[in-house]
Amino acid sequence: MKKTIVFALAIAACMAVSQNAWAKSGIGLAAIGVDAGIVDVDGGGSTLGLGVTADMGTFSKDVRFSLHGNYWNDTEESFGAEAGVRDISFSGRARYMFHTSSPKFQPYAGGGLGIHFYRASVTIPDMDLGGGVIIPGEEFSDTSTKLGMDLSGGFLVPMSARTDFTTDITYTVSDVDQFALKAGVSFKVGN
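^ thats the sequence. predicted structure below, dont judge the formating
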């Protein structure tokens, strides 16, 4: 507890000292977006992943900061029993925007940290052995919260002055490793 308080105070002090640097950077909500795609779950199958993003502006000319919220649920059934894993995650990523000669294509690569809220569950149905003998079914579930590291890359393609088409490939190292390929749109806010 004391270490957490000391760490929080140190972060607050560093932020207060670097106030001029924050003012010169372009930090602030620049765009919001949604995305969807395929998530390949380590030890499981592929499933649909949904997400929301917030482009929070630039640290420097070429480095942008973004916030991400993602959801996926992978369920498999065998012999009437069902097992599933769900992940709700929130992460922050820094993205290096590569220089290109075309304003119609903006590639990037980056990474960041996230927090993952996992829920694993198993449902076993009642089993009728015949002759009036029934083994009652059971349901088990467990939740855990884990830290994860994201490595990502992709590109932005302007669709209009205020709308971009986005693609993103992300590999997440966490309790349940995952590879995601998503596409979406983002909408610029403000000026």
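The CA atoms of residues 62 and 80 lie 52 Å apart.
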